Amino acid sequence: MIKVNKAFILDIYKPIVNDTHKGIQGHALLIGGSYSKMGSVCLSSKAALKSGCGLVTAFVPKCGYEIVQIAFPEAMVLIDENEKVLSNIEYTIEPDAIGIGMGIGQDVITEKAFYNFLLQNKTNLVIDADGLNILSKNNNWLSLLPQKTIITPHKKELERLIGTWQSEEEKLEKVIQFSLDHDLVVVVKGAPTLVIYHSEIYQNTTGNQALATAGSGDVLSGIITSLLAQSYNPINAAILGVYLHGLTADIAAPEMSYQAFVASDIISYLGKVYLSLEN
Ligand SMILES: NC(=O)C1=CN([C@@H]2O[C@H](COP(=O)(O)OP(=O)(O)OC[C@H]3O[C@@H](n4cnc5c(N)ncnc54)[C@H](OP(=O)(O)O)[C@@H]3O)[C@@H](O)[C@H]2O)[C@@H](O)CC1
Ligand SMILES: Nc1ncnc2c1ncn2[C@@H]1O[C@H](COP(=O)(O)OP(=O)(O)O)[C@@H](O)[C@H]1O
Ligand SMILES: [Mg+2]
């Protein structure tokens, strides 16, 4: 087990070069949301842009169009033909990385759209939340995922994917086997969060109970998608994303308490987090 501390992170961290531009800084596509869960994809999309990629597009059901535009004017928005849930994920843009699943629900129409998306997609992928729940119900679709797809399950989502475990040791064995079987980078969210790729285990060292708040995971999947779009390899994108996400809470807690910290604050504190890496 490798502990991910600041020295480890500085080794993989790539500062932004001064002659870059938004076109080469990475384009992240976040596919998510449904009626009553549109906040999830707003949080993911905003977290992606605030993590340094150059462009962000959100793909949402029709009812999300104005919500995303108003919540987050920097984003471009593509809409599904269905009003409330995703039903047909089609677009002509060429993103560098895609994050999918936050807030999408598990309507049968959305399951079908997710399947058709997986059939045609070749882009590096992060799968979160209901994307994982849908995969749990259709585990033969795992073979459709690109190599080193990143999945970000919390405890319940992980159980749905790999079944239950009796001990921490058994959990790790099962996750390692799952990662080997399907060539996945598994972000085992918790306190602490682990990133597991095949038999490599990376234990994060940042984060605290302030992160136990709605949308915290949606923000994490947005950050990781952004890093993937910025051409970090999938293992490093997951490790760095988890570290940055946790560090926002470590910097913020003494300034604003555990209680008052919400998912939007993770996004707000990303600036201080990046500055702390430069010093
Ligand atoms: N603003 C928005 O639009 C938001 C939208 N969201 C979207 O909602 C959708 C549903 O996602 P979800 O995670 O709330 O539902 P679900 O998978 O049933 O898990 C809930 C149960 O799992 C457990 N549990 C969870 N974490 C655990 C842990 N660390 N450690 C241990 N147990 C843990 C816990 O179960 P319990 O322990 O109570 O048995 C809990 O009751 C999804 O698409 C998401 O993106 C949300 O992101 C919120 C903001
Ligand atoms: N007590 C805690 N200590 C550290 N990190 C935590 C704690 N509670 C939650 N987190 C982190 O917060 C995030 C929660 O993700 P998730 O459950 O998917 O939230 P949501 O679906 O509401 O966005 C994970 O990254 C998890 O590791
Ligand atoms: Mg979640």
UniProtKB/TrEMBL annotation:
<keyword id="KW-0067">ATP-binding</keyword>
<feature type="binding site">
    <location>
        <position position="218"/>
    </location>
    <ligand>
        <name>(6S)-NADPHX</name>
    </ligand>
</feature>
<dbReference type="Pfam" id="PF01256">
    <property type="entry name" value="Carb_kinase"/>
</dbReference>
<keyword id="KW-0520">NAD</keyword>
<keyword id="KW-0456">Lyase</keyword>
<dbReference type="InterPro" id="IPR017953">
    <property type="entry name" value="Carbohydrate_kinase_pred_CS"/>
</dbReference>
<protein>
    <recommendedName>
        <fullName>ADP-dependent (S)-NAD(P)H-hydrate dehydratase</fullName>
        <ecNumber>4.2.1.136</ecNumber>
    </recommendedName>
</protein>
<feature type="domain" description="YjeF C-terminal">
    <location>
        <begin position="5"/>
        <end position="277"/>
    </location>
</feature>
<keyword id="KW-0521">NADP</keyword>
<feature type="binding site">
    <location>
        <position position="217"/>
    </location>
    <ligand>
        <name>AMP</name>
    </ligand>
</feature>
<feature type="binding site">
    <location>
        <position position="154"/>
    </location>
    <ligand>
        <name>(6S)-NADPHX</name>
    </ligand>
</feature>
<comment type="subunit">
    <text>Homotetramer.</text>
</comment>
<feature type="binding site">
    <location>
        <begin position="189"/>
        <end position="193"/>
    </location>
    <ligand>
        <name>AMP</name>
    </ligand>
</feature>
<feature type="binding site">
    <location>
        <position position="103"/>
    </location>
    <ligand>
        <name>(6S)-NADPHX</name>
    </ligand>
</feature>
<comment type="function">
    <text>Catalyzes the dehydration of the S-form of NAD(P)HX at the expense of ADP, which is converted to AMP. Together with NAD(P)HX epimerase, which catalyzes the epimerization of the S- and R-forms, the enzyme allows the repair of both epimers of NAD(P)HX, a damaged form of NAD(P)H that is a result of enzymatic or heat-dependent hydration.</text>
</comment>
<dbReference type="InterPro" id="IPR029056">
    <property type="entry name" value="Ribokinase-like"/>
</dbReference>
<dbReference type="InterPro" id="IPR000631">
    <property type="entry name" value="CARKD"/>
</dbReference>
<comment type="similarity">
    <text>Belongs to the NnrD/CARKD family.</text>
</comment>
<keyword id="KW-0547">Nucleotide-binding</keyword>
